[in-house]
């Protein structure tokens, strides 16, 4: 069970950081916003882990070769979009981060931060705990930590004030770069 908890916390960290960025750049955070982030982060994390488990040896090595590039590209694009909006506030055509809890953006973020769980899914059969329990623990831990990340991000955002889209955009790019560097140097 300890291995499942450690896996859960390790896989959840990117989702938590991305959730904190959403909270940081939001004008306000409601309970339903936190629930939305938690549901998507935990759901995608456990779903991707289950897919990785199901795919097993057949696709695990293929996913592991490209997952970091996909996550980096998605997170860099989201970060770039936030930076563009921060530096072009009067541009009517500028992409905007005005709706940090919109379903579409959160789904893209959940996919980007859970791709590594797809590759990690091949390790589920190696754990002493039943696979379903491991998947549930990973999803639950991710949901709780991502929800807490939103609240923490909002608390930090309330103190920092203006131009948080710049900080948020840079943070998303940094998360993507971290994923890429970790996989390339592993």
Alpha-beta classification:
mainly alpha
Query: How helical, in percent, are the residues?
Result: over 70%
Strand content: under 5%
Gross morphology: globular
Describe the structure.
The protein has five helices and no strands. The chain is mainly alpha-helical and 186 residues long. The protein has one domain (2-185).
Summarize, please.
It is built from five helices and no strands. The chain has helices at residues 2-25, 31-87, 103-120, 131-160, 164-185.
Features:
globular; mainly alpha; 186 residues; 5 helices
Secondary structure layout:
Layout: H1 2-25, H2 31-87, H3 103-120, H4 131-160, H5 164-185
Helix pairs in contact: 1-2, 1-3, 1-4, 1-5, 2-3, 2-4, 2-5
């Amino acid at each position: 069970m300890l291995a499942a908890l450690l896996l859960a916390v390790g896989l959840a960290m990117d989702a938590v950081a991305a959730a904190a960025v959403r909270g940081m750049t939001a004008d306000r955070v409601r309970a339903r916003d936190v629930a939305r982030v938690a549901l998507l982060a935990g759901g995608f994390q456990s779903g991707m882990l289950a897919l990785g488990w199901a795919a097993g040896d057949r696709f695990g090595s293929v996913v592991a070769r490209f997952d970091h590039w996909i996550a980096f590209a998605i997170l860099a694009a989201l970060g770039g979009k936030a930076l563009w909006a921060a530096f072009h506030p009067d541009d009517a055509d500028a992409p905007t981060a005005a709706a940090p809890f919109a379903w579409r953006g959160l789904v893209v973020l959940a996919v980007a931060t859970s791709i590594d769980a797809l590759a990690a899914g091949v390790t589920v059969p190696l754990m002493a705990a039943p696979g379903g329990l491991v998947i549930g623990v990973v999803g639950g831990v991710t949901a709780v930590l991502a929800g807490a990340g939103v609240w923490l991000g909002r608390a930090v955002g309330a103190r920092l004030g203006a131009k948080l889209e710049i900080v948020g955009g840079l943070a998303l790019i940094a998360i993507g770069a971290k994923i890429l560097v970790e996989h390339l140097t592993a």
